[in-house]
Design a protein that fits this description.
By secondary structure, this protein is α+β, with helices and mostly antiparallel strands. 20% of the residues lie in helices and 35% in strands. Strands 1, 2, 3, 4, 5, 6, 7, 8 and 9 form a 9-stranded mixed β-sheet that branches. It has a 4-stranded mixed β-sheet with strand order 12-11-10-13. A hairpin with a 2-residue loop joins strand 11 and strand 12. The protein starts with 7 loop residues before the first helix and ends in a 5-residue tail after the last strand. The relative contact order is 0.22.
Length: 205
């Protein structure tokens, strides 16, 4: 159970400060490049949400998928926080000074060969964005409480890049969150010490 919105930033900071960093992966293989994403939590008075993007259909990797804003590390980035904030500003036009960064989560290794550091940040509603159509097809929000309910996820078989493996899915408000994005959210819930077990659909009866 999450606290009310007024207490949420402090609670998140406390929980993450005392948690062990949980790492994860889509498939077990060597990650060659580093990246960072922002988990932007919007503090609406009637309930916190998380802001997501839908990647443009023409992109070479993860086209059309629901994702967090973020991307690859550049040589000028001093740390993952800088990468996440820079990429978010480039992708959706959200100014970095509107984001209160709370913590970095454990690394997540993707099938596309990235070692991703998720950065948790909060922002007040009323912000303005300007998505880059070359990278982003849509921007939307989903309820934080739903996203952190591990029992709502399903583990399913999927084939990507010719490799069959298991990954997690969450369907909410006619959106499908899956792959690395779902894996990062599940690890986020673990770091917050929230309970719940995803339903395993990979078990053959």
């Amino acid at each position: 159970m999450l606290p009310d919105v007024a207490q949420l930033p402090h609670w998140l900071s406390q929980q993450l400060a005392s948690s062990s960093r949980v790492s994860g992966y889509d498939y077990q293989h060597h990650s060659r490049r580093t990246a960072a994403v922002l988990i932007p939590i919007v503090l609406h008075p009637d309930g916190a949400t998380v802001l997501f993007t839908v990647r443009a259909d023409h992109l070479s990797q993860h086209a059309g998928q629901v994702s967090f804003p973020g991307g690859a590390t550049e040589s000028s980035d001093p740390d993952p926080v800088a990468t996440a904030l820079r990429e978010t500003a480039e992708e959706i036009g959200l100014p970095s000074d509107q984001v209160q960064v709370l913590a970095c989560l454990g690394e997540y290794h993707t099938i596309s060969g990235y070692c991703v550091t998720p950065v948790v940040g909060v922002l007040q509603p009323g912000f303005s964005i300007c998505p880059d159509p070359n990278e982003v097809a849509d921007v939307f929000e989903l309820p934080l409480a739903t996203l952190l309910n591990r029992a709502l996820y399903e583990k399913r078989w999927v084939t990507r890049q010719g490799v069959r493996g298991a990954t997690h899915f969450l369907e909410v408000n006619q959106r499908v969150v899956w792959g690395a994005t779902a894996g990062i959210l599940l690890n986020f819930a673990l770091e917050l010490m929230l309970e719940g077990i995803p339903k395993d659909m990979t078990i053959e009866l």
